[in-house]
């Protein structure tokens, strides 16, 4: 049977993914650092936002007839500098653009440190290339000013040329300023308060939380850590600043083997890509879908030792996959069949992403697929 090029390419990609899932079906347990599994409560970034003006554009700014807020911003700025315009003045601005400035204030940032900022047009400016951001206050969620931004914009990838053609590979309405913001206010944190800190697992898991508690108590002594729930772990820490920092450094570098995560399948409904984080087995079921049919069965092989050899009888099971395309048959699956093998067989007969989606959803609904199915 001839498969269209696009279907053949998709089938090849999915077969590679299914094969990778087979190879990773029995993942070897390996140690990970605690800093990769959990974060310290209170040690976090804070988003900052500001509204400002970009000037010096080469006629590519906002069209003031359609963006009146740009004109109002310019008038307010001039009034703050002591320039009062007549009420009948009509500004025709071509070199100014209203923008939103965004950045993140890292943990423990102190006044005087610089931050990279992103400047995005909020009007109908054609390009921010060559513009300069005027001094812009950057506020946090509490309305307080934590940084001030200003500087010349850099719009990457402008006018990139290919052999024989000229292509524009980036948005001209977004630019960045490296070190364009200066921190003016530090954010208070509770890290040095109290005699305990709290670890928050990045993924809630009771088994991993219990393993973390055991590892911390084994390293730093009994009763050092106690789990509050499946995510938060209370850890007793030294009170002194130097001792606490050294303790947290040792705590983050602690290695342990996390518990195996729950079975999960991610399916891209547009491309048909399937990713599995571990081997997913199926319960016995039968699915009919159009004219697609894959029969999966398990063969038992008995190995009988020779007489007086002292050996034992060994029974092994091997999966057998028969690929057919018959509208009169069902998709027969027996317990123990690997989902990776089923996907590979469906790809071999040219199943579309919609076919895979329908079959996996049917298996999940019937309870035969014991894994979390996420469709993106």
TrEMBL record:
Keywords: Bacterial flagellum, Cell projection, Cilium, Flagellum, Signal
Function field: Assembles around the rod to form the L-ring and probably protects the motor/basal body from shearing forces during rotation.
Keyword Ligase appears in the UniProt entry: no
Taxonomic superkingdom: Bacteria
NCBIfam families, A to Z: PRK05303.1 (NF003676)
HAMAP family: FlgI
Protein's UniProt name: Flagellar P-ring protein
Summary of subunit composition and partner proteins: The basal body constitutes a major portion of the flagellar organelle and consists of four rings (L,P,S, and M) mounted on a central rod.
Signal peptide: 1-31
Localization, UniProt: Bacterial flagellum basal body
Entry similarity comment: Belongs to the FlgI family.
